[in-house]
Amino acid sequence: MSGGPDRRPEGVAPVARKAAELRRLELLVTRRLDGMLRGEFLGRQSGPGSEVAGARAYEAGDDSRWIDWNLTARSIAPQIRTTEADRELQTWAVVDRSASMSFGTGEREKSEVAFAAAAAFGFLTARHGNRFGMLVSGGDDVVRFRPTSTRPELLATLSKLYDIPRRTQGSASDTDLAGTLRSLERARPRRGQVIVISDFLDDTEWRAAVARLAIGHQVLCVQVVDPRELVLPAAGMLTLVDTETGRDIHVQSNSSALRERYAAAATQRHDAIGRQIREAGSEHLVLFTNSDWLIEIVRFVAGRKTVRRHASLSLQQRARATRLRSVP
């Protein structure tokens, strides 16, 4: 990503680079996913919806809870209420911009991948006129961007996210990931989707906050990982810095025993993060700084679409079987 989301624009050239980057991201997302997502949109939550669309005659296998008794009393046969799916989806993205996100040894920093992921899900959400808002954690204050539903408003929000400077020190106690998730929870957004984009490396109680949000929302946790967080290279004496606390540690990376212990501990931590995310009732997507982040999002969306299609077919088959069993 040219420029990167950590630089403040000063003058015409940086603003032009930022506009070009946003346009490039939009084209990447829309071109790769345009054909894939046609017919994907159903509603903002599972189920038949709550908006009354009409009525029809009751058929064997229909849910009796949807019988319109007033209309049935005026007719000679039982009648079923029909509904339309609630169309407007509200999505909140919680983007972690703490100091640990300002790290990258691949093609980009983790903060740049987080920015690109937020832009991708923003474009996907806004393409149907849905609302997309953001909360940014990891700074001195929680930055809140109100939900928007139009392309110009979304681009303006992403532009402000792009301008947030990279963090080099720990965040305030109430602006860390858990604190930001709690602030979203206190705002009581209507039922929709929550996307949490972070490396999940802090020691806060983010899992409990994700679990509470998952009760009323569809939650997706996007974990951003750099390969050097999992494997330590043999590069001689290294000075490593904890970006959250600023503490330095000197290690001899040529030691194979040290590298093995590092890899084992890093794998254990990575697996624990994934397990906590799934136990909290959230979907889990991993993006690496040295891989094609958009390909991973495409695969995730395609997999989610396949699961939904199979679930829909399964429901139809069960309903058909119920109707057949009801026929004398």
Plain-language structure description:
By secondary structure, the protein is of the alpha/beta class. A six-stranded mixed sheet has the order 5-4-3-6-7-10, sandwiched between helices. Strand 8 and strand 9 form a beta hairpin. The longest helix has 34 residues. It is elongated. 30% of the residues are buried.
Domain count: the total is 3
What is the tally of beta strands?
10
Arithmetic mean pLDDT: 79
Strand content: 15-25%
- Please give the count of helices: 8
CATH superfamily of the largest domain: von Willebrand factor, type A domain
Helix fraction, binned, reads 40-55%
Q: Runs with pLDDT <50, length 5+?
A: 1-9, 37-47, 309-317, 322-328
Q: What is the correct CATH architecture of the largest domain?
A: 3-Layer(aba) Sandwich
How many strands, what sense, and barrel or not for the largest sheet? 6 strands, mixed
Broad structural category: alpha/beta
**SSE order, one letter for each helix or strand:** HEHEEHEEHHEHEEEHEH
At CATH level 3, the topology of the largest domain is: Rossmann fold
Strand order of the largest sheet: 5-4-3-6-7-10
CATH class term of the largest domain: Alpha Beta
